[in-house]
Design goal:
This is tRNA(Ile)-lysidine synthase. It catalyses: cytidine(34) in tRNA(Ile2) + L-lysine + ATP = lysidine(34) in tRNA(Ile2) + AMP + diphosphate + H(+). GO terms for molecular function: tRNA(Ile)-lysidine synthase activity. By secondary structure, the chain is α+β, with helices and mostly antiparallel strands. The strands form five sheets. Strands 3-2-1-4-5 form a five-stranded parallel beta sheet, with helices on both faces. A five-stranded antiparallel beta sheet has the order 6-7-10-9-8. It has a five-stranded antiparallel beta sheet with strand order 11-15-18-19-20, with no helix packed on it. α4 crosses α5. The chain is built from 14 helices and 21 strands. It is globular, with a radius of gyration of 25 Å.
């Protein structure tokens, strides 16, 4: 039997002492994942168990929640759960039950990570899930980006330590450890596409290749490596060919048309992602329509795309914008000293004097320590404005705040939400992102301020 603990450890997905949210449904995969992570003793991980009750199976769903709660208790781990009426959510938003459940789960896991200062979210996707995902995307129509499927270290904190492990190997592990798990009765419902692929299509494909799941997962890994290279080339071309401001991405048509069609389509995807932060409902037909707009002889024409996106050709300029961009509110707020301050963007800023900690790393981007001597009150807090510059901690010379946003891949529509904190006219913190050099705490620093920014919902 494979040493699954060694397989997870050797991927080096987690930093020593890291806080990790573990998504546990109660099924075999997630129970095995939690058990493996608790055995990474050298890493000293701080685990938080999170469970979303989908409210789809009545008493069975409630029993799953109770099972996971008891599991967390046995491991002496914190447990957080939430109940979501996924059926109502799906009906209201026009999603399938599977898509609605996925969106609800990941929104909850990210919220738990934010509250607990976690820097990773561990989910239990394994090799067979990877194979099924490749087939689903192939059937729905996907290019290299989609067929590369899932990665062990994904975007937005997600980690998938079990992608090298099959479902059968996980069950062997659980049996060897005498661990029990819950079985979701809906997993046998073949009217659900993923279940149909698992129970009907893959067994048929095994007649042609008994190791079809391993081969599909290996194909996804090869495509992911290719995708990484192509994305690097796309980013380099985007920097060379595109210009950005607060609410638009602009290409020069003549230079754009000198590039290969495949790169142009990737550039359009990249530009749309920069504007909106995702590519939901953007299909190949939309990218081809943009390319036709760029190459047509008409000097002025436009397209409307899903998600309030608009692409406009005006002579030699191809502009990507939001058709109805949100109104950016300009506000300023004085912070005279310690206390809690409700900001006009709905966030809360808390400031308090503390003893200088031995370790300045807080584990959360929303909490920082600043030198009180070098950052005298009153402070000014306001949103980002074009032209803002600061000196990031550990650097010499100034940098545009806009460049920080671009490097952090912060979508354009989110940038006005980031508060900037000023002392004596100089940025001391781009809240939630980067401390300014002016606020540096050193061994010679006297008074220290602990500063936190919190999202507040109405």
């Amino acid at each position: 039997m494979k040493d699954l603990v060694a397989i997870v450890r050797n991927q080096h997905l987690f930093a020593p002492g890291e806080t990790v949210v573990v998504a546990v449904s109660g099924g075999a995969d997630s129970v095995a994942l939690l058990d493996i992570l608790t055995r990474l003793e050298d890493e000293g991980l701080h685990l938080v168990v999170a469970h979303l009750n989908h409210c789809l199976r009545g008493a069975e769903s409630d029993a799953d929640e109770k099972f996971v709660s008891d599991l967390a208790t046995r491991h002496h781990l914190p447990f957080l759960a939430i109940r979501v009426d996924v059926a109502s959510f799906a009906a209201a938003e026009g999603f399938s039950l599977e898509d609605a459940g996925r969106q609800a789960r990941y929104a909850f896991f990210h919220e738990v990570a934010k509250r607990r200062g976690a820097t990773s979210i561990a989910v239990a996707h394994h090799l067979d899930d990877q194979a099924e995902t490749v087939l689903i995307r192939l059937l729905r129509g996907a290019g290299g980006t989609g067929l590369s499927a899932m990665s062990a270290s994904g975007d937005s904190l997600i980690k998938r330590p079990l992608l090298q492990v099959s479902r059968a190997e996980l069950e062997l592990y659980l049996n060897s450890r005498e661990l029990t798990w819950r079985t979701d009765s809906t997993n046998s419902d073949t009217t659900i596409l993923r279940n149909s692929i698992r129970h009907e299509l893959i067994p048929t494909l095994r007649k042609y290749n008994p190791r079809i799941s391993e081969r599909l997962a290996a194909t996804a890994e090869i495509l992911a490596a290719d995708e990484e290279l192509l994305e690097h080339l796309t980013c380099s071309a985007f920097e060379r060919l595109a210009s950005q401001d607060d609410d638009a991405v602009v290409f020069g048509v003549a230079a754009l048309l000198r590039e290969h069609r495949g790169l142009r389509l990737r550039l359009y995807r990249h530009g749309l992602h920069e504007l909106r932060g995702d590519l939901m409902r953007i299909a190949l037909t939309h990218l081809e329509a943009i390319d036709h707009l760029a190459s047509t002889g008409r000097p002025n024409a436009s397209l409307k795309l899903p998600g309030s996106l608009r692409v406009e050709r005006c002579y030699d300029r191809l502009s990507f914008t939001c058709a109805a961009p949100p109104t950016v509110q300009r506000w300023e707020q004085l912070v005279p000293g310690e206390g809690c301050y409700r900001l006009e963007n709905g966030m809360m800023l808390t400031v308090g004097l503390v003893q200088r900690p031995d370790d300045l790393a807080t584990g959360s981007r929303n909490i920082v320590y600043l030198s009180a001597d070098n950052t005298p009150f009153p402070w000014l807090v306001r949103p980002f404005a074009p032209g803002d510059r600061f000196t990031p901690l550990g650097m010499k010379g100034s940098q545009k705040v806009k460049e920080l946003f671009i490097n952090q891949k912060l979508p354009l529509h989110e940038r006005s939400r980031v508060p900037l904190v000023f002392s004596e006219g100089e940025i001391i913190w781009v809240a939630g992102m980067r401390v300014g050099e002016k606020g540096r705490v050193t061994s010679a620093t006297g008074a220290v301020l602990r500063v936190e920014i919190l999202e507040i919902t109405p």
